[in-house]
Recover the amino acids of this structure.
């Protein structure tokens, strides 16, 4: 049976020409959630970033690219047992 990923956040990163994916539900890594991944259209390849510091597991988080700072911002989301209202920046 194949796992499916639901309610994750994705955002295009024009600086690196990649797509950032975070969180969601359905696919699990060692930490218990999908974690943080980057897709390179140029190489047609996904890679798991496994950063030392990343947001706690969550689903349905808005994530956008901020052209002023050239960073990706993730806000809040559903921790499935609590709603989150924190802000994280991907650099």
């Amino acid at each position: 049976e194949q796992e499916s990923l639901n309610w994750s956040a994705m955002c295009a990163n024009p600086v690196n020409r990649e797509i950032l994916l975070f969180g969601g539900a359905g696919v699990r890594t060692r930490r218990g959630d999908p974690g943080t991944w980057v897709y390179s259209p140029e190489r047609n390849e996904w890679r798991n970033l496994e950063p030392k510091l990343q947001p706690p597991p969550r689903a349905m988080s808005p994530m956008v690219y901020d052209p002023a700072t050239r960073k990706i911002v993730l806000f809040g989301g559903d921790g499935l047992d609590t709603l989150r209202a924190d802000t994280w920046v991907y650099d």
